[in-house]
Amino acid sequence: MLAVQQLEAGYGESVILRDVTLKVKPGQVVCLLGRNGVGKTTLMKSIMGVLKARRGSVSYKDADITKRAPGERAKQGIGYVPQGREIFPQLTVFENVLLGLEASRQKRRTIPEAAIEKFPVLQTMYSRRGGDLSGGQQQQLAFARALASEPEMLLLDEPCEGIQPSIVDDIRDVIRSIKADGKTAILLAEQSLEFVKSVGDYFYILEKGAVAWEGKLADLNEEVIRHYLTV
Protein backbone atom coordinates (compact mmCIF):
# COMPACT_ATOMS: atom_id res chain seq x y z
CA MET A 1 0.00 0.00 0.00
CA LEU A 2 2.72 2.48 1.03
CA ALA A 3 6.31 2.07 -0.11
CA VAL A 4 9.20 4.40 0.72
CA GLN A 5 12.35 3.74 -1.30
CA GLN A 6 15.83 5.12 -0.53
CA LEU A 7 14.34 8.37 0.75
CA GLU A 8 16.59 11.31 1.58
CA ALA A 9 15.20 14.51 3.15
CA GLY A 10 16.21 17.34 5.44
CA TYR A 11 16.03 21.02 6.28
CA GLY A 12 18.23 23.63 4.65
CA GLU A 13 21.67 22.13 4.22
CA SER A 14 21.08 19.47 6.89
CA VAL A 15 20.33 15.93 5.77
CA ILE A 16 18.07 14.18 8.30
CA LEU A 17 16.89 11.06 6.47
CA ARG A 18 19.38 8.88 4.62
CA ASP A 19 18.40 6.07 2.27
CA VAL A 20 15.20 5.16 4.20
CA THR A 21 13.22 2.23 2.81
CA LEU A 22 10.04 0.83 4.39
CA LYS A 23 6.67 -0.67 3.50
CA VAL A 24 3.19 -0.69 4.98
CA LYS A 25 0.80 -3.38 3.75
CA PRO A 26 -3.01 -2.98 3.60
CA GLY A 27 -4.63 -3.28 7.04
CA GLN A 28 -1.24 -3.40 8.78
CA VAL A 29 -0.07 -1.33 11.76
CA VAL A 30 3.60 -0.51 11.22
CA CYS A 31 5.44 1.22 14.06
CA LEU A 32 8.34 3.62 13.70
CA LEU A 33 10.67 3.70 16.69
CA GLY A 34 13.85 5.49 17.67
CA ARG A 35 15.33 7.90 20.14
CA ASN A 36 14.51 11.62 19.99
CA GLY A 37 15.95 13.40 16.96
CA VAL A 38 16.50 10.38 14.72
CA GLY A 39 14.10 11.57 12.00
CA LYS A 40 10.69 10.03 12.74
CA THR A 41 8.75 13.26 12.30
CA THR A 42 10.84 14.21 9.26
CA LEU A 43 9.88 10.89 7.68
CA MET A 44 6.18 11.46 8.40
CA LYS A 45 6.35 14.94 6.86
CA SER A 46 8.14 13.56 3.81
CA ILE A 47 5.54 10.85 3.29
CA MET A 48 2.74 13.42 3.56
CA GLY A 49 4.55 15.84 1.25
CA VAL A 50 4.90 18.60 3.83
CA LEU A 51 8.66 18.21 3.33
CA LYS A 52 10.01 17.55 -0.17
CA ALA A 53 12.15 14.51 -0.77
CA ARG A 54 15.65 15.24 -2.04
CA ARG A 55 16.15 11.75 -3.35
CA GLY A 56 14.28 8.47 -3.45
CA SER A 57 10.54 7.91 -3.82
CA VAL A 58 7.21 7.55 -2.03
CA SER A 59 4.60 5.28 -3.62
CA TYR A 60 0.99 4.82 -2.55
CA LYS A 61 -1.15 2.04 -4.00
CA ASP A 62 1.51 1.49 -6.69
CA ALA A 63 1.45 5.14 -7.83
CA ASP A 64 4.48 7.41 -7.41
CA ILE A 65 3.38 10.37 -5.27
CA THR A 66 6.85 11.77 -4.53
CA LYS A 67 6.19 15.07 -6.26
CA ARG A 68 2.53 15.47 -5.35
CA ALA A 69 1.32 18.17 -2.96
CA PRO A 70 0.05 17.28 0.54
CA GLY A 71 -3.53 18.07 -0.46
CA GLU A 72 -3.35 15.68 -3.39
CA ARG A 73 -2.00 12.92 -1.17
CA ALA A 74 -4.79 13.51 1.34
CA LYS A 75 -7.43 13.28 -1.39
CA GLN A 76 -5.92 9.97 -2.50
CA GLY A 77 -6.69 8.52 0.92
CA ILE A 78 -3.81 9.39 3.25
CA GLY A 79 -4.82 10.83 6.62
CA TYR A 80 -2.30 12.60 8.85
CA VAL A 81 -2.30 13.33 12.58
CA PRO A 82 0.83 15.47 13.03
CA GLN A 83 2.96 15.78 16.12
CA GLY A 84 1.60 18.69 18.14
CA ARG A 85 -1.96 18.09 16.79
CA GLU A 86 -2.13 21.36 14.78
CA ILE A 87 -5.85 21.86 15.31
CA PHE A 88 -7.36 25.29 14.65
CA PRO A 89 -7.76 26.86 18.12
CA GLN A 90 -10.25 29.58 17.08
CA LEU A 91 -12.59 27.15 15.31
CA THR A 92 -15.12 25.01 17.14
CA VAL A 93 -14.68 21.28 17.59
CA PHE A 94 -17.35 20.69 14.96
CA GLU A 95 -15.66 23.05 12.48
CA ASN A 96 -12.28 21.37 13.03
CA VAL A 97 -13.71 17.92 12.28
CA LEU A 98 -15.64 19.31 9.32
CA LEU A 99 -12.35 20.47 7.76
CA GLY A 100 -11.37 16.82 7.47
CA LEU A 101 -14.03 16.44 4.79
CA GLU A 102 -11.93 18.58 2.46
CA ALA A 103 -9.81 15.51 1.76
CA SER A 104 -12.74 13.12 1.32
CA ARG A 105 -12.64 11.13 -1.91
CA GLN A 106 -16.42 10.66 -1.62
CA LYS A 107 -16.98 14.46 -1.56
CA ARG A 108 -18.94 14.06 1.66
CA ARG A 109 -20.82 16.98 3.17
CA THR A 110 -21.52 15.35 6.53
CA ILE A 111 -19.11 13.87 9.05
CA PRO A 112 -19.15 10.05 8.86
CA GLU A 113 -20.38 8.44 12.06
CA ALA A 114 -17.35 6.17 12.21
CA ALA A 115 -15.06 9.22 12.56
CA ILE A 116 -16.75 10.70 15.59
CA GLU A 117 -18.21 7.68 17.38
CA LYS A 118 -14.68 6.56 18.25
CA PHE A 119 -14.32 9.70 20.39
CA PRO A 120 -17.81 10.20 21.89
CA VAL A 121 -16.66 12.96 24.25
CA LEU A 122 -16.13 15.25 21.25
CA GLN A 123 -19.83 15.17 20.42
CA THR A 124 -20.54 16.86 23.75
CA MET A 125 -18.05 19.62 22.88
CA TYR A 126 -19.07 20.49 19.32
CA SER A 127 -19.65 24.17 20.11
CA ARG A 128 -16.45 24.67 22.12
CA ARG A 129 -13.36 26.22 20.55
CA GLY A 130 -10.56 23.79 19.81
CA GLY A 131 -8.12 25.94 21.76
CA ASP A 132 -10.18 25.52 24.93
CA LEU A 133 -9.74 21.74 25.00
CA SER A 134 -7.14 19.89 27.04
CA GLY A 135 -4.11 18.45 25.27
CA GLY A 136 -5.63 14.98 25.27
CA GLN A 137 -8.94 16.24 23.91
CA GLN A 138 -7.10 18.14 21.17
CA GLN A 139 -5.32 14.92 20.25
CA GLN A 140 -8.66 13.14 19.97
CA LEU A 141 -9.93 16.03 17.83
CA ALA A 142 -6.94 15.81 15.47
CA PHE A 143 -7.52 12.07 15.17
CA ALA A 144 -11.24 12.50 14.45
CA ARG A 145 -10.46 15.18 11.85
CA ALA A 146 -8.14 12.75 10.03
CA LEU A 147 -10.76 9.98 10.16
CA ALA A 148 -13.44 12.28 8.71
CA SER A 149 -11.97 11.79 5.22
CA GLU A 150 -12.25 8.00 5.63
CA PRO A 151 -8.56 7.39 4.80
CA GLU A 152 -7.14 4.06 3.68
CA MET A 153 -3.73 5.03 5.07
CA LEU A 154 -3.25 6.84 8.37
CA LEU A 155 -0.04 8.51 9.56
CA LEU A 156 0.09 9.01 13.34
CA ASP A 157 3.02 11.04 14.68
CA GLU A 158 3.48 10.67 18.46
CA PRO A 159 -0.25 10.45 19.30
CA CYS A 160 0.45 9.72 22.98
CA GLU A 161 2.88 12.58 23.58
CA GLY A 162 2.02 14.63 26.67
CA ILE A 163 -1.49 13.32 27.25
CA GLN A 164 -3.14 11.68 30.24
CA PRO A 165 -3.13 7.86 30.58
CA SER A 166 -6.92 7.53 30.20
CA ILE A 167 -6.83 9.14 26.75
CA VAL A 168 -3.78 7.07 25.80
CA ASP A 169 -5.96 4.04 26.53
CA ASP A 170 -8.74 5.50 24.36
CA ILE A 171 -6.33 6.04 21.47
CA ARG A 172 -5.01 2.49 21.85
CA ASP A 173 -8.59 1.19 21.64
CA VAL A 174 -9.26 3.28 18.52
CA ILE A 175 -6.12 1.97 16.79
CA ARG A 176 -7.08 -1.59 17.69
CA SER A 177 -10.60 -1.09 16.33
CA ILE A 178 -9.23 0.35 13.06
CA LYS A 179 -6.85 -2.60 12.83
CA ALA A 180 -9.65 -5.10 13.47
CA ASP A 181 -11.78 -3.47 10.77
CA GLY A 182 -8.97 -4.12 8.27
CA LYS A 183 -9.81 -1.21 5.95
CA THR A 184 -7.12 1.27 7.00
CA ALA A 185 -3.36 0.76 7.27
CA ILE A 186 -1.46 2.74 9.90
CA LEU A 187 2.09 4.04 10.15
CA LEU A 188 2.64 4.99 13.80
CA ALA A 189 5.62 6.92 15.16
CA GLU A 190 5.71 6.66 18.93
CA GLN A 191 8.15 6.79 21.85
CA SER A 192 6.21 4.46 24.16
CA LEU A 193 7.47 0.94 23.63
CA GLU A 194 4.63 -0.50 25.70
CA PHE A 195 2.09 1.27 23.49
CA VAL A 196 3.51 0.15 20.14
CA LYS A 197 3.89 -3.42 21.36
CA SER A 198 0.18 -3.46 22.16
CA VAL A 199 -0.92 -2.44 18.64
CA GLY A 200 1.90 -3.07 16.14
CA ASP A 201 2.35 -5.77 13.51
CA TYR A 202 5.77 -4.76 12.19
CA PHE A 203 8.48 -2.43 13.47
CA TYR A 204 11.21 -0.20 12.07
CA ILE A 205 13.87 1.48 14.20
CA LEU A 206 15.56 4.64 12.97
CA GLU A 207 19.05 5.65 14.06
CA LYS A 208 20.84 8.73 12.69
CA GLY A 209 18.18 9.10 10.02
CA ALA A 210 18.48 5.58 8.63
CA VAL A 211 16.67 2.29 9.21
CA ALA A 212 18.90 0.43 11.64
CA TRP A 213 16.59 -2.51 12.38
CA GLU A 214 13.27 -3.98 11.27
CA GLY A 215 11.24 -6.98 12.30
CA LYS A 216 8.14 -8.44 13.92
CA LEU A 217 7.14 -8.16 17.58
CA ALA A 218 8.74 -11.50 18.42
CA ASP A 219 12.07 -10.18 17.13
CA LEU A 220 11.91 -6.99 19.20
CA ASN A 221 13.88 -8.48 22.08
CA GLU A 222 15.72 -6.91 25.02
CA GLU A 223 19.02 -6.80 23.17
CA VAL A 224 17.49 -4.79 20.29
CA ILE A 225 15.70 -2.48 22.73
CA ARG A 226 18.85 -1.86 24.77
CA HIS A 227 20.99 -1.21 21.71
CA TYR A 228 18.67 1.10 19.78
CA LEU A 229 16.07 2.53 22.16
CA THR A 230 17.39 2.76 25.69
CA VAL A 231 18.51 6.27 26.60
Explain what this protein looks like in three dimensions:
This protein has nine helices and ten strands. The strands form two sheets. It has a six-stranded mixed β-sheet with strand order 6-7-8-3-9-10, sandwiched between helices. Strands 2-1-4-5 form a four-stranded antiparallel β-sheet, covered by helices on one side. 32% of the residues lie in helices and 26% in strands. It is globular. By secondary structure, the protein is of the alpha/beta class. The chain has helices spanning 40-48, 70-75, 93-99, 113-117, 120-123, 135-147, 165-181, 193-199, 222-228; strands spanning 2-11, 14-24, 29-33, 55-60, 63-64, 78-81, 153-157, 185-189, 202-207, 210-216. The longest helix is centred in the last third of the chain and has 17 residues, at 165-181. The two termini are 33 Å apart. The protein has a domain at 2-85 and 153-228: P-loop containing nucleotide triphosphate hydrolases (Rossmann fold, 3-Layer(aba) Sandwich). The mean pLDDT is 91. One of its GO terms (molecular function) is ATP binding. Keywords: Amino-acid transport, ATP-binding, Nucleotide-binding, Transport. It holds the Pfam family ABC_tran. This is Urea ABC transporter ATP-binding subunit UrtE. Residues 2-231 form the ABC transporter domain.
